[in-house]
Amino acid sequence: MAAFADWANPHHPWQLVRVKLPAETCTFGVGEFTKGVTVSVRATGQALLVRLWRQFQGTSTDATEKADLGFALWERRHWAKVSAVEAYFDDLAARHGRRNPTPLKLRRLWQEYNRGRNYRADRLRQQRMKRLWTGCIEYNREPRLFHTETPLEPSYLQYSFEVLEWTPRKSDWVAEVTELDARQPWRNYWTPTKTSLKAP
Questions:
Q1: Residue 193 within a domain
Q2: Residue 147: CB partners within 8 Å, gap ≥ 6?
Q3: For residue 159, what are the contacts with CB-CB under 8 A and spacing of at least 6?
Q4: 88-104, pLDDT tens digit by residue?
Q5: What is the mean pLDDT of the chain?
Q6: How many independent structural domains does the chain possess?
Q7: pLDDT, tens only, 122-135
């Protein structure tokens, strides 16, 4: 579980997906906001769009850009089912005793991960719905800021309307998710990756 929560590890399944995504935008230009250029948290227009794009891609140039929003997009497609995990911990506690250190430690790890996951999901919803999607329509008598197709940018994972749950059955969640992705590749790719975009 700890390895699954360590999304910054270059061997994490999310990072292996992230490096396969196109490194450049496909539906809009970045203008002067090239890699490494800091974008203000109060940015609007193209600067805001680039800032959001970086975060949805899982990259950041400074402490105010949250690279974990890219992980949050991936996480929505690999949502460990809360009831199944809680039932597993209840079963462990019943077999080994409620004060056994192993189930207690695992439950604390889960609670920490789940709290972080919920926080990321809330922030992702705010950024996608309140900033990106409303920027693509006329909203509150304000003109749209971005092109209508911007939310479909293929260089980051798309926001699934529902979380795609899975039930962990092994202690090694990373290996299990890797197997799951091999069986269900649509969890990560609904558009072609940069390797499949090359001309024959």
A1: no
A2: 27, 28, 136
A3: 73, 76, 124, 128, 151
A4: 999 999 999 989 999 89
A5: 90
A6: 1
A7: 999 999 988 999 99
183 located within any domain: yes
pLDDT at position 200 is 45
Closest CA to 4 of 84, 91, 78: 78
Alpha-helix residue ranges (DSSP H) falling in 76-199: 82-96, 101-125, 134-135, 173-183
pLDDT tens readout for residues 108-119: 999 999 999 999
- Which residue range forms the structural domain that includes residue 50? 2-79+123-187
Any domain includes 57: yes
Q: What pLDDT does 188 receive? A: 87
> Domain for residue 42, yes or no?
yes
The DSSP output letter for 67 is: T
pTM metric for this prediction = 0.88
What pLDDT band is residue 191 in, cutting at 50, 70 and 90?
low
Cα–Cα dist 46/149, whole Å: 14
Residue 31 CA to residue 112 CA, distance in Å, equals 39
Taking the C-alpha atoms of 190, 196, 198 and 200 in order, what is their torsion angle to the nearest 10 degrees? -130
Place of tokens 């899982």: 58
Compute CA distances 181 → 31, 34, 119, 185, whole Å: 35, 32, 24, 5
Distance of CA 175 to the CA centre of its chain: 18
